[in-house]
Amino acid sequence: MQRAAYFRQTTLYQFNAVLARAAQAANRHDWIGEQTLRVKINRKNELLSCTAEADPKLPPGRFPDNAKLAALVEKVCWDIILPSAGAETFASATAEEVELVQLLIFSSPSQIPESDRLRHRQARVEMEQSDFVWQQTFAQESLDSIGVATFRGWADPQGRVLDCLAELDLSFLQPEAFKPDPDLQRRLTERCKKMDMGRVAGFTIPRNYPTEFYITVEYTPWKGGSKKAVSPPREPLSRRALRQRHQG
Q1: Mean pLDDT for all residues in the chain
Q2: What domains does the chain contain, in order, with CATH numbers?
Q3: Predicted structure pTM score
């Protein structure tokens, strides 16, 4: 029992670290409040549900942003890659699902150190860029893998993409769930070449010469919400293949 409790607590800590970082980056309007997020996953580490709500015991009006924060937190939960939860996280050997409860606190910017505020601002720009590229390249795909896509290229002074290469790689949070897909990589590269980089947040294009860009996008079968929560069977990389990728 103590061993199971230890692994569950470790998983909760890992989930909270990833979720809190992403939620702060997504909180572009500096909303203030707190949310209890309930995340349900199965033994395949597939995300089944994300439900956020404020503590009903809080005095009415104390955190007027809580309703907006609930929607924000749920969206973040569906959109990011969460850490793998080991078998020890589940209540019993026969349990097929587990619910992990997280408390996320959003403080006033005045209570956050300047160094953290700068880091949050940079993370927000990167998230906006990632969201834009996701919509332009991934949104129409039906995915059966978890990974990180990297888009590298050049744009001219008008924002037109001169060249682009999309590459797919595993995520250290769920490396076993990655599946190489050359056809997907080719489609993403072609769509990237049609993007208008002038519409990308935080991307500055000088007047007289091309500018290089480098944007990463996390992807999962359920990114975008519960409508994508049921994924088709996938063939994950074997442990041997994972070792070979890291050694290479």
Answers
A1: 87
A2: 1-112 (3.30.1150), 118-219 (3.30.1150)
A3: 0.85
